[in-house]
């Protein structure tokens, strides 16, 4: 049996560094919201020959009223341009300039109004708040009958912290990607992060449910002798399940990231980051935090 709880101070230091670094990244760089939230235009192009460099494209489009333009490769010859709302005249002039020099085909052109973007932003905030509240309530109710010394609210509070940890780290990665590569937070990325919330809760519930079973065995003079052993046994008993579940989910997501289109690439990346952090926190944080909390509260 692996003594996971023995090295909990190492996990806490490592997680503290990750959380601090993530907060610093978010404070300094922030997130770059996509036009799904701010409103703007999306133009997808495919060049007939090799795709020109971003610098060449920017020079070709100089003096056009496009605002800040985000250029993202899409496949071998494709390109996505994200910019502010543009008129049809500007749209046609943009195509004309690029087509004249390199030759291309327009795959998609979409306008998203700022009103729609603001509405999506407000609805996303509401969904996130409701999801967190409902999950906290579920955890508190589900573990209301757990034997002492655990209280149901403690399990709920730890689960919310794990949720915060598992979402914060992917957000920090996207803040760095936004700063250095212009990657934006879009609706698919937001959906992926909400999925991460559910995935993180599921992993922690699996571990805590096994903790509850082991504590019942302790109260009936069963297989383990101490509370700490019950927690460590719960982590070991669920380890193979956590590994198998995480790997079977990660493999298709990795293929989606490398082989899928540009529209789902960062959706897959957000899920990959969330699943990895969710596996880590459910094994190395959930029960160590619980045992440390109870030892700290013990008179």
TrEMBL record:
Location(s) in or outside the cell: Cell membrane
One GO CC term on file: plasma membrane
Domain of life: Bacteria
Membrane-topology annotation of the record: Multi-pass membrane protein
Main localization of the protein described in the UniProt heading: membrane
Regions that span the bilayer: 12-31, 126-146, 158-177, 183-208, 243-260, 266-294
Ranges of residues in domain Protein export membrane protein SecD/SecF C-terminal: 104-294
GO molecular function: protein-transporting ATPase activity
GO biological process annotation, one example: protein targeting
Signal sequence annotation: none
Family affiliation: Belongs to the SecD/SecF family. SecF subfamily.
Known partners and oligomeric status: Forms a complex with SecD. Part of the essential Sec protein translocation apparatus which comprises SecA, SecYEG and auxiliary proteins SecDF. Other proteins may also be involved.
NCBIfam families the record matches: transloc_SecF
Function: Part of the Sec protein translocase complex. Interacts with the SecYEG preprotein conducting channel. SecDF uses the proton motive force (PMF) to complete protein translocation after the ATP-dependent function of SecA.
Name of protein: Protein-export membrane protein SecF
Organism: Candidatus Nealsonbacteria bacterium CG08_land_8_20_14_0_20_38_20
């Amino acid at each position: 049996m692996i003594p996971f709880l023995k090295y909990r101070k190492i996990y806490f230091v490592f997680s503290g560094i990750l959380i601090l670094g993530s907060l610093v990244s978010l404070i300094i760089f922030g997130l770059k919201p996509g036009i799904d939230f701010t409103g703007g235009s999306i133009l997808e192009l495919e060049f007939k020959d090799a795709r020109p460099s971003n610098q060449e494209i920017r020079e070709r489009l100089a003096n056009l009223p496009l605002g800040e333009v985000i250029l993202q490769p899409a496949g071998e010859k494709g390109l996505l341009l994200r910019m502010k709302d543009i008129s049809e005249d500007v749209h046609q002039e943009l195509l004309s300039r690029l087509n004249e020099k390199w030759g291309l085909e327009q795959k998609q052109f979409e306008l998203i109004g700022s009103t729609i973007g603001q509405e999506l932003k407000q609805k996303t905030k509401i969904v996130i708040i409701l999801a967190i509240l409902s999950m906290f309530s579920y955890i508190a109710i589900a573990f209301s009958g757990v034997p002492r010394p655990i209280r149901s609210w403690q399990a709920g509070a730890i689960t919310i912290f794990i949720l915060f940890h598992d979402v914060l780290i992917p957000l920090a990665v996207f803040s760095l990607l936004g700063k250095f590569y212009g990657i934006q937070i879009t609706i698919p990325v937001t959906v992926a992060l909400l999925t991460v919330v559910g995935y993180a809760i599921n992993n922690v519930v699996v571990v805590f449910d096994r903790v509850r079973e082991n504590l019942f065995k302790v109260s009936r003079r069963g297989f383990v002798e101490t509370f700490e052993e019950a927690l460590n046994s719960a982590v070991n008993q669920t380890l193979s399940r956590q590994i198998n579940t995480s790997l079977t989910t990660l493999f298709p997501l990795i293929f989606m990231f490398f082989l899928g289109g540009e529209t789902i690439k960062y959706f897959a990346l957000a899920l990959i980051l969330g699943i990895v952090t969710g596996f880590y926190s459910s094994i190395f944080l959930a029960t160590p935090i619980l045992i440390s909390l109870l030892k700290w509260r013990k008179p």
